[in-house]
Amino acid sequence: MQDEPFDALIGTTVDDRYLVLAKVARGGMSTVYLAKDVRLNRNIALKILHPHLATDNAFLERLQREAWSAASLSHPHVVQIHDHGVGAEHAYLVLEYIDGHTLREVINATAPLTAGAALELLDPIVEGLAAAHAAGLVHRDVKPENVLVSRSGWVKIGDFGLSRAVTTTTNTATLMGTVGYIAPELVNGGGGDARSDIYSAGIMLYELLTGQQPFHGQVPIAVAMQHVRDDVPAPSAAVPGLPAEMDELVRYMTEKDPDNRPANGASLLEDLRHIRRTLTPEQLAAGGIGAGSRPLPPGAVTEALAPPYGSPGNETAVIAAPANPTSVLPSPGRLYVDENGRPSAYATPNMTMALEPGAGVGRNAAGTGGQAPSKRSVRMAARERARTAAQPIATLGTAHPRRRATLWILVVALLALLVAAAGWFLGMGPGALATVPDVHNKTVAQAQALIQARGFQLAATSEVFNEKTAAGLAVDTDPTGGTEQRKFQGVTILVSKGPVLYPVPALAGKTLAAAQAALSAGHLATGTVTEAYDEKGAAGTVVSQNPASGTQFRGNTKVDIVVSKGPRPIPVPSVVGRPAAAAQAALKELGLVPAVAAGQVYSTTVPAGSVAAQSPAGGNLTAGGTVTVTLSKGPKMVEVPDVVGRQLDDARSRLEARGFTVKVEKLFGGFFGTVRFQDPQGGKAPEGSTVTLQVI
Description:
It is built from 20 helices and 34 strands.
């Protein structure tokens, strides 16, 4: 056997408060230590996160929020969170220390279990989940490793907060560590809710009944896809003889569509306890490792599962006569902390021994006070005590016959009175059997009147969420209507609080992805997503929603979202050639801002004071965009050179050099090519205007 490597944390103190005593377990996210809270002088479980998580700021922030939520949950079947801290070297959680075993060890040692034992183990798990779901917490990592069974018989579910923080801040690959229990919606990338916990609990129930998980594969993704694609087989297919109710319960808890499963732990708990009440003792004893299994009475799980755990010899043994006094020796070997903060072990077997008369506590057949007597000496001592007790120590006189007859008459009369009283009590009085009435959809006052009319004096109330019954009306009773029980036993009225309502979060300003994540976290669904131009909202962000934030609706209610496409685009019109005032008015009417350039330009085509150019000349702008216009000074006036008498080519080049356009008219065929006339001749003319030459 290989020695466990030395752990440097053992013997150190975390945050000057938690003295680390021993390593308990190591998992994918953390290492668990037994430690002592030196301030409160008590044992605790110290969960140190692995370094790759302890340096992830986003994960630590999420873990802190979830630790706050989980710490507010106080329930006997949920492991309590005492503290949470992030130091320079470690990030940790401080949890209630449970001296016992995980449900994984129970399954490995005892499964398959009988139907009764499996239901009894599942009941406190579901009750813990119900309390968490009522507080708005979802576990998301329900598996046998996260269920603890104490040596005293308490069943508690742990790792609230840590599992939720991990599953909401990591990718799907993180979930593959618990692929055997993962809900189909988590495999498909959807958000998990209370119904995902129900699915995982259904897989655990299958494993308790059969001793194995329903799906197997060479790689995790193959198992995950079986959760999505295949139905969980009936447990009776693996363990013949299980009642059909167990097959139906497993099927109900592991439906592929979350809408077809129980809505939360409270709904499942009601169904679970109804099944336990209706199954016969023979059905509860069905299944299990061997034939002849018997149904377990409440609280007997630890007794039935005790042999695989603890040290050999933990069974109770009685020596000598049953009438002799007994003494309970210390409990099995466990790790404790002494007054100096050092771990110490007690390994004395937990055996109930009969002591000899006069023997002190701690002296027994195998005690530390001397050598154990033989069986023969014990039997001889018992016979001697019996003979001594049988010898009379006084002689009684003869009883008076009349006095003895009177005594018998009194005894018979007293017995008759007792029989009559018992008959009245069980037949007509508070002990008589009566049927619990059906109070569904009745008011509390009406339900109490019906229950009291049947002779039940105690009619307490308990509020539960219900999707079908209006708030304030009775959903059912515990025990349920139609059940027979004694009148003195209490009847609890389950009063509807209506459906579970969730507030609609404010989505304005969030991206579409962030809005959808907020709705999923709030147990709501994304409805119709439309896009619209918006002058204020940035493109891709939510600008409106329906229904509005703050209103409350049932789970999975759809919320419609309008996402901004940004400001509406405005086509830029052409205002070139238009007078300045008219151009500016046209731009303002479209929501654009006109701006006039400081300089003006000459234009042969645009009159002075009108727009000669603009920027931008086209395309699109948004409201408030600027269009710059440049005004015309009109055409530029240029001195017209006199070219009369010059040859045509020379005259043309002189005029074109000044920017004029030349028009030639030939007189008499223009044989000589000499300019005879020009129009205009001299003076100034607009640049680009036409000068007409007549050539002979």
